[in-house]
Every structure is written in structure tokens, then in C-alpha cells.
Amino acid sequence: MKQYLLSIYQPDGELPAPELLDRVMRDLDVLNQEIRAAGAWVFTGGLHPADTATVVRVQDGAMLTTDGPYAEGKEHLGGFWVIRAPDLDAALEWGRRAARATTLPIEVRPFQDGPEG
What we know:
By secondary structure, this protein is α+β, with helices and mostly antiparallel strands. The chain has two helices and six strands. The longest helix has 20 residues, at 18-37. The model has no long low-confidence stretch (mean pLDDT 90).
């Protein structure tokens, strides 16, 4: 089975109202249980806000670090799943379910073939 990255694109700004956030968290818990039960689970993670990021790059042999996200935008990577799926269609179905649970856009991307793929 191939592995896929399901990325959550979260808008910058305030968190949703508690009643919406509570529902999203319940729906995510159900989704995570379903992914595990299906044998598709590899791991998942939520990220701190983009303004906590540090970008590291090498320029003229020197390491440079800058605060904040690499790219300025109205959305940032808020979290992700790594799943196993037999094909893109199955991965897209998990992405659809994740979009419904989070109420946010989900990008589905296959990992390049490697030792696991």
C-alpha cells in the first residue's frame, strides 16, 4: 500500500467559536478511530500556529534562521495525517471525510515510492 499525506489548510486568525470547535474535535476523534479501524492509520499531528515557525536555510555556506512561516498567506498548514491506502481514490475518500470533519480544505498527496511504497 502507498502512503499519503492529508494536509489540513487552516485559515489564519482566531479559532472558531467553542461550539463549532467542540463539534470539529468530536468529528475528528470519530474519523481517527475509523482510520485506525480500517488499518489505514500511520500517524497524525496538529501544529502550533504558523507564527511559531522558524525557517532554516543555508546561504553562502552560512545557516540563516528567520521567524515565521516560509510563505506569507491567509492559510497555513495546521495539521496532517499520514495514511496507508491501496490507491489515490481510497486516499481521496479519507480526504473527503477529513474535509467534512474539519470543515477545512484537505490536500491529498502521495509519498514518493520508497522502502514502504
